[in-house]
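Much of the work behind modern protein science is quiet bookkeeping, done one molecule at a time. The fold becomes a row of whole numbers, each drawn from a learned catalogue of backbone shapes. The protein below has been through that process, and both of its lines are reproduced in full.
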Amino acid sequence: MPESNERKVMSRADLTKRLVSKLRNEEAVVGGIGWTNFELWGAGQRPQNFYMLGSMGLAFPIALGVAIAQPKRRVIGLEGDGSLLMQVGALGTIASRNQRNLVMIVWDNGAYQITGGQPAATATVVDVVGLARASGLEKSFWAKDEAHFEQLVDRALSEEGPFFIAVKIDSAKPAATTHRDPVQIRERFMRGLGVREAI
């Protein structure tokens, strides 16, 4: 069992709200599929939020693309552990790119929660921070508790990245569900990034 499974289990809903409360500079946030983006939606809709629908494992690649396109904007990708395992090769690409305005946050509950709670490899043998470090991401950390999570987010929003932050989280069902309108999500996000004029 990896040491990560002995870490404090925190509330994804609470930490998502803590993260969003720190966003004061129109930072872009890409929320991975399922409960990750449900919590982001529930924390308060922002035009700079992108809520993914059905594209498992692509939060970090999409966030990387946004960060490359807008290097002066801090870009945050939120991803579940199961989704990360689907596209773990993206970590090496991100490390080789060394995109300094990119922040990655992984919510690790050791399960594929949205499809029924089947256990993921992170529940037994895989340490996502170990994966990130082995992929070349030096600024990769486990959040020890809520205060430490906030400290890591503060660093990630002020220092050069890329940053990778992982958190052991609960499996509580989100209170809200993302409004599933792909065109509306895309258009609002593009306007939020200033690349599409308001209608």
In short: The chain has a mean pLDDT of 91. Residues 12 and 174 are 9 Å apart (CA to CA).
